[in-house]
Amino acid sequence: KQEVTQIPAALSVPEGENLVLNCSFTDSAIYNLQWFRQDPGKGLTSLLLIQSSQREQTSGRLNASLDKSSGRSTLYIAASQPGDSATYLCAVVRGGSNYKLTFGKGTLLTVNP
Amino acid sequence: ETGVTQTPRHLVMGMTNKKSLKCEQHLGHNAMYWYKQSAKKPLELMFVYSLEERVENNSVPSRFSPECPNSSHLFLHLHTLQPEDSALYLCASSQGEGSYNEQFFGPGTRLTVL
Questions:
Q1: Is A101's CB within 8 Å of B98's CB?
Q2: A53: left (phi over 0), alpha (psi -120 to 50) or beta
Q3: Which candidate, B30, B50, B36, places its Cα nearest to that of B78?
Q4: What digits encode the pLDDT tens for the residues B21-61?
Q5: Sequential DSSP letters for B37-103
Q6: Per residue in A43-93, pLDDT tens?
Q7: CA-to-CA distance for A87 and A6, rounded, in angstroms?
Q8: Which of B46, B48, B79, B88 is most buried when burial is the number of CB atoms within 10 A of its CB?
Q9: Contact B103 A31 (CB under 8 A)
């Protein structure tokens, strides 16, 4: 059974700092991995999707890497801003299943002005 | 705005009530999903519909009954719920089968069962 773990559970940083969020998964036979952002009481916004054959994806100040063999992904946020404060969720799709996303519990990020 | 809308945004119901949650996607996708998000737990997949057929039912109690009348609409019918069913219910859609299966989520319905 696939399990996804995100560390740390919560992180508080001053504005402008570069930071890394970690995600690990137990079954490396994944189809792809997605990073989402969730604001309090709201739905999920997709940030980056990495196919299993890719090593990283970039969007603006965000960079996500994937090391499938070791079951790890990182989300790097450069020059953090108070508007980045949210919960960041990592989810994987199991190989052979195009539908089922397995989520981690998320990392609650607070960026202080 | 992701192109996926959900109504109502908030719902309070008693254990004997019957209510329905509605989801609509304007993205031309052919797969739709219901997820449950409880406090301090990962999101849990409840149901998956592809081309209006249910392809996955993740051991969800029968008091939750999904309906997908067409590829743009998805409902979750609720009856005789329990207080532990209080959660944020999220709908999502995707293009379905294929190498790029990004899921787009709605804003959710916050359900409270008294």
A1: no
A2: alpha
A3: B36
A4: 999 999 999 889 999 999 878 899 899 888 777 777 778 99
A5: E-TTS--EEEEEEETTEEEEE-S--TTEEEEEEETTEEEEEEES--GGG-EEEEEEEE--SSS----
A6: 899 999 998 899 999 999 999 999 999 999 999 999 999 999 999 999 998
A7: 11
A8: B48
A9: no
Is B11 in a helix, a strand, or coil?
Answer: strand
Segment A6-19 shows an average pLDDT of 96
| Alpha-carbon dihedral B30, B89, B40, A77, rounded to 10 degrees | 50
Number of A to B CB contacts under 8 A, please give it.
61
* Token pair 């797969």 in the structure block, residue: B31
Record: contact B105-A32, CB cut-off 8 A: no
